């Protein structure tokens, strides 16, 4: 994989919402970064500003992806590229409306029970 910032090879998979912050495994939560852009001085692990910037970007991307008010689990699995088991675990405490899960609540959950933007 190539670094999404500078294009160098040997990129590592970064979780935009860290696993320690409740980050889940889904495609938009991954950012591929070379060692410098991953853990160097200008990286989300060393620079709070960059970290927050990536998280705000992720929130915007999720909001653009989830344009309907409600989604069913199967739709989320497909849209997010998430494993079924993890999706079930992720959304099991969300309120189930007749039409499915609410998009705001889905985004909140995927951001680790927090909004950034
Ligand atoms: Zn890089
Ligand atoms: Zn990382």
What does this structure look like?
The chain has one domain (about 10-110). Helices cover about 40% and strands about 10% of the residues. The protein is built from five helices and four strands, in the order E-E-H-H-E-H-H-E-H. The chain is elongated and about 45 Å long. One zinc ion binds near residues 5, 6, 34 and 37.
What portion of residues belong to β-strands? 5-15%
User: Can you give the mean pLDDT?
Assistant: 97
User: Count of helices?
Assistant: 5
Which term fits the overall shape?
elongated
The span between the termini is 29 Å
Hetero ligands: zinc ion
Radius of gyration: 15 Å
- The order of strands across the largest sheet is 1-2
| Largest β sheet strand count, sense and barrel closure | 2 strands, antiparallel
- Helix % is 40-55%
Q: What are the secondary-structure elements, in order, as H or E?
A: EEHHEHHEH
Unreliable parts = none
Question: Helices and strands: which structural class?
Answer: alpha+beta
Let me know the number of strands. Answer: 4
């Amino acid at each position: 994989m190539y670094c999404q910032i500078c294009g160098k090879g040997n990129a590592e998979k970064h979780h935009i919402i860290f696993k320690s912050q409740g980050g889940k495994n889904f495609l938009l939560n991954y950012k591929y970064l070379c060692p410098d852009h991953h853990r160097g001085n200008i990286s989300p692990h060393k620079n709070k500003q960059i970290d927050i910037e990536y998280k705000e970007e992720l929130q915007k991307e999720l909001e653009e992806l989830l344009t309907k008010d409600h989604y069913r689990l199967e739709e989320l699995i497909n849209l997010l590229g998430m494993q079924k088991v993890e999706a079930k675990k992720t959304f099991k405490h969300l309120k189930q409306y007749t039409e499915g899960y609410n998009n705001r609540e889905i985004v909140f959950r995927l951001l680790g029970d927090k909004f950034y933007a």
